[in-house]
Amino acid sequence: MQPSLIIHGGAWDIPDEAVDACKSGCLSALRAGWKILKSGGHALDAIEAAIIVLEDDPVFDSGFGSHLTMDGRVECDAIVMDAATLRAGAVAGLRRVKNPIQAARAVLEKCPHMMLISEGAEQFAAAHGVQLCDPRDLISPAEREAWLRCSKDSHAAQNHRGHEQGTVGAVALDQNGHLFAATSTGGTCCKLPGRVGDSPLIGCGCYADSEVGGVSCTGYGEAIMKIVMAKTTVDYLRRPAICVDRTAAQSCSDSAADLAARDAVHLLAKRTHATGGLILLDCHGNPAHAFNTPRMAYGYVAPDGSFFTAV
Ligand code: ASP
């Protein structure tokens, strides 16, 4: 099977001055994940490697550089889902984990439950070898300044370099047909302490089913939850493909993936009047994306092995 990888760095009003940083962050994440997939590695290792690069990059709202809560802390959420078993590992409200995706993976692989929160999640992660950090190590200077501006004045998007969101996500398919999807976020800026958005919720911010494909979402979490966007997208992928040219199997499955992505974002706008975006791989590895924000940072590896990134 031909491996495949798609990643995103959030759908938001990415300002011009952040475009290059977002693109190069996406490229580094693709490189990290593809190195593993190309050499026959496992999709779970590839997705973890790609997400770690994005979490460590302060231009994205996950791990280091996450938005701060109203009381000036970072609280991260993450999920990774195995399309074959429909099992997820999810964590929420982490304050001391450098790479939340590693905690999510530990839950997926080693926990009898599918979701852990706050101290319990941190203790479980640490007991399974995940590195904890000082909570202050997750706060980037830019987000600290944004938070200070917000606390002096009222919370405003322009205080956050123009963006309100910027979650990261990835979907990977390896040569043995293992399909995984993942999402990691610092949530929305100036959120109330304890707020959990769509990102770590199975079916909302992430879903994967080996019968059809895997999805990672980004955008206004309270709206994404209303339409259970990732699962809705996967359900759309089950619809029969609309084939213009019935002899062209490739373009046939491409159009089904594109249509599923577009219809899910359309539903988000129609039913909730909110903005967001998503990436997906269908179970054959065809990538698709859609968003209704001014920009989304994303990238994928094309079937010929070339890297494509866009903002
Ligand atoms: N969906 C995330 C949340 O609401 C934010 C984002 O995707 O940018 O926590």
Describe this structure in words.
- With about 300 residues, the protein is of the alpha+beta class.
- The chain is about 35% helix and about 25% strand.
- It contains eight helices and twelve strands.
- The protein has helices spanning about 20-40, 45-55, 100-110, 120-125, 140-150, 220-225, 230-235, 250-270, and strands at about 5-10, 75-80, 85-95, 115, 170-175, 180-185, 205-210, 215-220, 275-280, 285-290, 295-300, 305-310.
- The strands form two sheets. Strands 4-3-2-6-5-1-11-12 form an eight-stranded mixed sheet. Strands 7-8-9-10 form a four-stranded antiparallel sheet.
- Helix 1 runs antiparallel to helix 2 (about 45-55), helix 2 packs antiparallel against helix 3 and helix 3 (about 100-110) crosses helix 4.
- The longest helix is centred in the C-terminal third of the chain and has 24 residues, at about 250-270.
- The radius of gyration is 18 Å and the shape is globular.
- The model is unreliable at about 245-255 (pLDDT under 50).
- Bound molecules: aspartic acid.
- Aspartic acid binds next to strand 8 and helix 6.
